[in-house]
Amino acid sequence: MKPKQAQLCHFLILFNIISIHLNGITARIHPSSPLLPRQFREAPEFYNSPNCSPIIKHSDKLNNEDDTNDNNLVCSDEAVHVAMTLDAAYIRGSMAAILSVLQHSSCPQDIIFHFVASASADASLLRATISHSFPYLKFEIYRFHDSTVAGLISTSIRSALDCPLNYARSYLANILPLCVKKVVYLDSDLILVDDITKLAATPLNDDTILAAPEYCNANFTTYFTPTFWSNPTLSLTFADRKACYFNTGVMVIDLERWRTGDYTTKIEEWMELQKRMRIYELGSLPPFLLVFAGKIAPVDHRWNQHGLGGDNFRGLCRDLHPGPVSLLHWSGKGKPWVRLDASRPCPLDALWAPYDLLKSPYLIDS
């Protein structure tokens, strides 16, 4: 073998070794792969400011299916209860969202997280991942059985919207303990840059069930099919209310009133009708609009600067809505961690990056 050929051969061997090594790292941090606890950094611990009142008065054992956990959960009405779904595909976004909530809260030790995971998920791995990065966090994980909604889900315009866990927000009143009377629901693809206590304090008057930012300039008719609007019995659903679009990724929910009114059943009834006559195209959003639009407590738009993930088809870059910002929400197809990993970020993805707890590939490998 000639010297130049030998050098080329050695180069190719070295190149292949490096490629295999890097591919192994990529596989371990690919969004579709389960993420291990050690792949995330431990977040700093955040403490209450001096003006926070001590709210821990009593603890109640959770009555849920996961009896392997001995943790107690505070049921104080003064605590800020936050509900989120949790799965391997979106865990990176969830970790960033948790960090942002704690970092900007004046009373972070008074926040209790309620995570809902699919019953088929590895709850022990999810618990270990959260505990590794947030060893001081007050939280519980609840199982959500896909069979609860399997027969009710209709195909939508994007397959990710058809995931059963995407519908868990409709069942929070059934999943969370009865002692939890009010909860702030948050999607996993957002970050807060303001104190969540302000959002949780949104008043729910006149038997209002939930609060959320409304967008009355949006064309409300586009969220339902011509079949819906051409049927007088159906279209009259909105006759006596000023129905506006709202995004279900950020909601303040009165769980006591929800349980009393059995609103989960009302949502399921619309989903059953959808299976028969196709009255909308999106996933879990339209049933919420059908039940609650025009009957919710308004929240300032700053608490859901949504749509940063672009539309449901291409996920193109979008700008912020005019006005102040308390919460940035990458709803839509494009997620900031995916675009950052692909070196094709949108300008606003740089605002999400500081909350990313995923270690670099080299730290993971070491």
Automatic annotation (TrEMBL):
<feature type="signal peptide">
    <location>
        <begin position="1"/>
        <end position="27"/>
    </location>
</feature>
<dbReference type="InterPro" id="IPR029044">
    <property type="entry name" value="Nucleotide-diphossugar_trans"/>
</dbReference>
<keyword id="KW-0732">Signal</keyword>
<keyword id="KW-0735">Signal-anchor</keyword>
<dbReference type="GO" id="GO:0005794">
    <property type="term" value="C:Golgi apparatus"/>
</dbReference>
<keyword id="KW-0328">Glycosyltransferase</keyword>
<dbReference type="InterPro" id="IPR050748">
    <property type="entry name" value="Glycosyltrans_8_dom-fam"/>
</dbReference>
<comment type="pathway">
    <text>Glycan metabolism; pectin biosynthesis.</text>
</comment>
<keyword id="KW-1133">Transmembrane helix</keyword>
<keyword id="KW-0808">Transferase</keyword>
<keyword id="KW-0325">Glycoprotein</keyword>
<protein>
    <recommendedName>
        <fullName>Hexosyltransferase</fullName>
        <ecNumber>2.4.1.-</ecNumber>
    </recommendedName>
</protein>
<dbReference type="GO" id="GO:0016757">
    <property type="term" value="F:glycosyltransferase activity"/>
</dbReference>
<dbReference type="Pfam" id="PF01501">
    <property type="entry name" value="Glyco_transf_8"/>
</dbReference>
<keyword id="KW-0472">Membrane</keyword>
<comment type="similarity">
    <text>Belongs to the glycosyltransferase 8 family.</text>
</comment>
<dbReference type="InterPro" id="IPR002495">
    <property type="entry name" value="Glyco_trans_8"/>
</dbReference>
<keyword id="KW-0812">Transmembrane</keyword>
